[in-house]
Design goal:
Blueprint (H helix, E strand, L loop, with lengths): L2 H27 L5 E7 L2 E9 L5 E6 L4 H33 L4 H8 L14 H11 L14 E2 L5 E2 L2 H12 L4 E5 L3 E5 L2 E5 L3 E5 L5 E7 L5 H16 L8 E5 L8 H13 L1
Helix pairs in contact: 1-2, 5-7
Length: 274
């Protein structure tokens, strides 16, 4: 569980609530005096405006249904008052959580055991850290198939197979504070019950969540045979539990419609926000 992400998201929710609160309080200051009540008499429903005069006497006035401006203003006022009450309650609960939640309890717990540190203990670490360490230190076997086609260089000095892959790699690199990637990282799948290694164009790792996703580029969608291979590859991923739009993301192009950098960024942002 990515606790730091949850903590930050709650802080963002708090900031959003505070902005809404300012807006609602400003709206109430500009609202007309009094409150609106809905009443019923002789099976007939109607609205009244209730307020106090300068002597403190409670006054109740009938509001015509034709007076839509007053009905809307007082109705909005009542809604805003209820909404403010709920927001303040949520803000109080969020403040209590943020104040009391211990993000560093793992490290502090280990520090407190003192003399027991020389004993090999099973530490309950953040699994995300272990995933990141494995990602950074793993040694992968490169895809040597058609190696001579790797003639295009990315910003990270990698050699890839097409100009479109350069665009994607460089775009991914611009999000390196949120997403790490590897080119043609091997992936073991099963085909008809047999294990096989395939090489997705790009494998990404979300730094915040530790989630791995795959990004494939399909560059000749106007070629019927190539399009058929695309369908087969998507089906292969699906059969291995890698779902399009959830774990697998794709970009396309054809001779008439080349790859667009904005399109690539939209896909990358989908990967980050999933």
């Amino acid at each position: 569980m990515n606790e730091s992400k949850i903590y930050r998201e709650l802080e963002q929710v708090k900031q959003q609530y505070e902005l809404i609160l300012v807006k609602l309080e400003d709206s109430l200051q500009n609202a007309p005096p009094g409150n609106m009540l809905k009443e019923k008499k002789y099976h007939h429903e109607y609205y009244t405006k209730q307020y106090k005069d300068k002597d403190g006497k409670c006054i109740r006035e009938y509001i015509s249904k034709k007076d839509k401006k007053t009905l809307k203003q007082l109705g909005q006022k009542k809604y805003d008052q209820l909404f403010i009450k709920s927001i303040r309650k949520n803000l109080m609960l969020i403040d209590k959580f943020l104040e009391g939640y211990d993000l560093d309890f793992r490290e502090r717990g280990y520090e407190k055991i003192g003399e027991l540190k020389d004993i090999p203990l099973e530490l309950y670490e953040d699994n995300r850290i272990a995933i990141l360490e494995k990602w950074m230190t793993e040694e992968i076997q490169e895809n040597s198939y058609n190696d001579e086609l790797k003639i295009f260089e990315t910003d990270k000095k990698e050699m890839v197979r097409s100009k479109s892959e350069v665009i994607i790699a460089n775009a991914l690199n611009q999000y390196s504070d949120k997403l790490l990637y590897k080119y043609e990282r091997p992936l073991e799948v099963k085909i008809s019950g047999f294990k096989k290694i395939i090489y997705p164009d790009f494998t990404t790792l979300n730094i915040e969540s530790g989630e791995i996703s795959y990004l494939e580029h399909f560059g000749m969608m106007d070629n019927p045979e190539y399009a058929e291979q695309f369908v087969k590859k998507i089906n292969l991923y699906e059969e291995n539990g890698i779902v399009l739009g959830k774990d697998l993301f794709v970009t396309f192009e054809s001779m008439e419609v080349p790859l667009n950098t904005k399109q690539v960024r939209r896909v990358i942002e989908q990967i980050i926000s999933k």
